Amino acid sequence: MRYPLSGLLTVAVCAVLAGASSFAAITDWLHDLDEQARDRLGFDHGVPVGTTVWRLLTRLDDGLLSTVLAGWLTARAQPVTTPRPRRYRTVIAVDGKTLRGARRSDGGQVHLLSALDTSTGIVLAQVTVSAKSNEIPAFAPLLDAVETVLGTLTGLLFIADALHTQTAHADEIAARGAHLMIPTKGNQPTLFAQIKALPWPDVPLGDRRRDTGHGRRETRTVKAITVHTPGGIRFPHAQQAIRIIRTRTTGGKTSRETTYFTVSLPAEQAQPADLQDWARREWHIENHVHHVRDVTFREDLHQARTGTGPAVLATLRNTSIGYHRTNGEANIARATRRANRRPHDLITAVTSTYTTTQ
């Protein structure tokens, strides 16, 4: 029997929006639909068994699926109506995640590199890192995928961890009209030494923030210095060097951490208060996406390993998180439970241009 491809893809998206965390759970969601819902999806002559759903989802082009679903989420996201700060800038956080339960035939684990729009909570792109490589060669394809979804990278600010403090990355981003804020650590010892040796004691304090919560007190101070001058630091397109000191007190014990960054924006476009905010956004993809995929969708326990199955499921989970974030949901687990009770609303959301279903 033949089944509609669009119907099967809609089922996969809707089921994960409703909390399904595996191929079997996606099939169960379809089988639990009432007759009217099945008819709406084109399954008026029966529904596929689990192996059919599995075969389809493990053979999809995961990159194309990520682009299509990210474009759909971006198009349906509510436009911003509140005034934005004068120096507002869209910040894209880049980070990788290993799918610990998904192993290739050679025993290696599947690793994905993703880009998150920190203002909307939408994962704009995701690429699979080659089994014999690392995240660095995957950076340019990730930018390509983001550009496909948004149409342009002009004016965007990318943030990532120190692994991506690479001159080629800085050149690539600058060539596309975007900007880069990146930490500097031991993997770039010359650059790290240059920034650390700057006259920080003579630089006035730019911004200080204090936070309390979870039995912890934290103070973060920011200093920034212009380096885009003759004899400045040797990193392409760097306009400012940044020092952020985090002092934490937990249970009577105090620790201090100093981190150095570069940013390709001048001081008039990136004040210390902005830099403070942007540095914290680097953690959004870990805390708001990867952690949720592990806790709510139990990703690391899932042992999908065939074809593109691991990446496809990760893309569907990203879509679920982004969908609920754009609906104003903070608790994704609660949002998926609510969505699971309203299958017809989910089908309407995925198959029409309606903007809300909750």
Molecular structure report:
The chain is an alpha+beta fold and 358 residues long. It has a domain at 183-275. 40% of the residues lie in helices and 22% in strands. The protein is built from 13 helices and 9 strands. The chain has helices at 5-17, 23-31, 35-40, 50-57, 62-76, 135-150, 167-175, 189-196, 272-281, 284-295, 309-326, 332-340, 343-351, and strands spanning 91-103, 109-117, 122-128, 157-159, 179-184, 207-213, 216-226, 240-250, 253-263. Strands 3-2-1-4-5-9-8-7-6 form a 9-stranded mixed sheet, sandwiched between helices. It is elongated and about 75 Å long. Mean pLDDT is 91; it is low at 354-358. It holds the Pfam family DDE_Tnp_1_assoc. Residues 2-73 form the H repeat-associated protein N-terminal domain.
Q: Which tags fit this structure?
A:
ISAs1_transpos; alpha+beta; signal; 9 strands; elongated
Question: What does the largest sheet look like?
Answer: 9 strands, mixed
Average pLDDT number: 91
- Number of distinct beta strands: 9
Q: Which structural category fits the helices and strands?
A: alpha+beta
Continuous helix count: 13
Uncertain spans: 354-358
* Beta-strand fraction estimate: 15-25%
Residues in helices, as a percent range? 25-40%
Side by side, the strands of the main sheet go: 3-2-1-4-5-9-8-7-6
Could you state the order of secondary-structure elements as H and E? HHHHHEEEHEHEHEEEEHHHHH
Radius of gyration: 22 Å
Taken from the alpha-carbon principal axes, the silhouette is: elongated
InterPro entries: ISAs1_transpos, Transposase_11, Transposase_11-like, YbfD_N
Keywords: Signal
Domain Transposase IS4-like: 90-308
Organism: Micromonospora sicca
